[in-house]
Amino acid sequence: MDLDYYIGEARPDMPGPLQGPMPIMRMFGVTSDGVSVMTHIHGFAPYFYVLAPINFDSKLCKQLLERLNKLILGELRNNSENISDAVLSIDLVEKQSLYGYQKLDKTRFIKITLCLPRLISIAARILTTTNLLGQSETKCFESNIEFEIRFMVDRSIVGCCWIELPAKSYKLRSPDQYESRCQVELDVAYDKLIAYEPDEKWSSIAPLRVLSFDIECAGRKGIFPEPEHDPIIQIANYVTRQGESEPFIRVIFCLKTCLPIVDHEVRCYDDEKKLLQAWADFVREVDPD
């Protein structure tokens, strides 16, 4: 499983705001049958916490939202993303700080949810350098956590764990909507994901396709190969599945001719450009993980 995010438009059929820019998580994985999947995960928004002043109550959340939103928008020079609601919500919550000894089990914090991850640093700076909360010092918490890590922690996802998308919880994309070379692409709300702990039942590894390749060049003696002067003369490839000891594909791409090699398919090409194009097509067809 691999994970990153990109900025896209909010969708009315997904959690979160109805319009405006939103981060969309992009998760890559493989099913138990070896099918590669790219999942667009919608509705998860970045947030951080601020230690609430003693006299702050839930009635002041709306006022703070409006004032902070105005200040953040003022910091955006060109606002190329056309952000109108930088702050999505402000809530008063009870949490426990991990810093030092705490007399109380719970402390009141202000949870500030924003539309984009990059706005967290702007919001935190505004809160710590102004008197917006009516106090001399404002402490921010969890404002430096990377957005991908935040998502994984909140959804109990760890690297290479198994994730289930319940039936009817996702929407398959048509091939003309694909943004990757995965075999399947789909859209799903972030709160529909089910992540399994790697216990006995879910400790297996997906049948990942692993491509190993070695490139040989017609190098000059004593000089490291340079693409402008030294052509690629051979690319040897092994493709294996996770859990299998022997490769199921052995292919060698050669410039000009080559003698037959036992248990290997040899493909020969007249010039380097054709060789590289054929190898690129091969990589796309194999779809290694």
Automatic annotation (TrEMBL):
* Molecular function as annotated in GO: 3'-5'-DNA exonuclease activity; DNA-directed DNA polymerase activity; nucleic acid binding
Biological process terms from the Gene Ontology for this record are:
base-excision repair, gap-filling; DNA replication proofreading; nucleotide-excision repair, DNA gap filling
**All copies of domain DNA-directed DNA polymerase family B exonuclease, residue ranges:** 139-289
Its catalytic activity? DNA(n) + a 2'-deoxyribonucleoside 5'-triphosphate = DNA(n+1) + diphosphate
Kindly list the GO CC terms recorded for this protein. Answer: delta DNA polymerase complex
Protein origin, superkingdom: Eukaryota
Q: Provide the DNA polymerase delta/zeta catalytic subunit N-terminal domain boundaries.
A: 43-120
Q: Which PANTHER family match?
A: DNA POLYMERASE CATALYTIC SUBUNIT, DNA POLYMERASE DELTA CATALYTIC SUBUNIT
Q: What is this protein called?
A: DNA polymerase delta catalytic subunit
